Amino acid sequence: MRVIVVLVLVVATTGCTTAPVSVSPDDVSALAGSWQGWLVTDGGVSLISFDIRADGTFQVSGPLVRASGILVVADGALRFDGTGMWRGTLVPEGLGERRVLRIQRDDRLYRGTLHPISHGNLDPEREITRS
């Protein structure tokens, strides 16, 4: 019975995900703009803003969150290195209206999905280069 339940869960969640995209340093500036989403923590959820500048610096803010730092491309992954405990990975996914950034801190205490809220330098139709 457990095997069937696990198999159903794997099949159900596989169709809901998109493949992570490898990024290059040029892609960091393509992500510039304001992103917003729900950050999931052990204590609940919190609405945050994640602002990325074309030079790769960022600022994250929310009711319980304030941090700033820089985005770094390492081994095809987009990493954020910020103040306090704000170190982790951003994974760009999708195109156009479905474009999102998945965020997860290294300590695994915070994770979420961010959506673009202003287009500034962000071109939602631009596909991120695959390596």
> Could you state the order of secondary-structure elements as H and E?
HHEEEEEEEE
Please report the number of helical segments: 2
Mean pLDDT: 77
Q: Could you estimate the helical fraction of the residues in percent?
A: 10-25%
Structural class: mainly beta
CATH architecture type: Beta Barrel
Give the radius of gyration. Answer: 15 Å
Can you put this structure into words, describing what you see?
This protein is mainly beta. It has one domain (19-118): Lipocalin, CATH 2.40.128.640. 15% of the residues lie in helices and 47% in strands. Strands 1-2-3-4-5-6-7-8 form an eight-stranded antiparallel barrel. The longest helix is centred in the first third of the chain and has 13 residues, at 2-14. It is globular. Mean pLDDT is 77; it is low at 1-21.
Question: How would you summarize the topology of this molecule?
Answer:
Layout: H1 2-14, H2 25-30, E1 33-41, E2 44-52, E3 57-62, E4 65-74, E5 77-82, E6 87-93, E7 100-105, E8 111-118
Antiparallel strand pairs: 1-2, 1-8, 2-3, 3-4, 4-5, 5-6, 6-7, 7-8
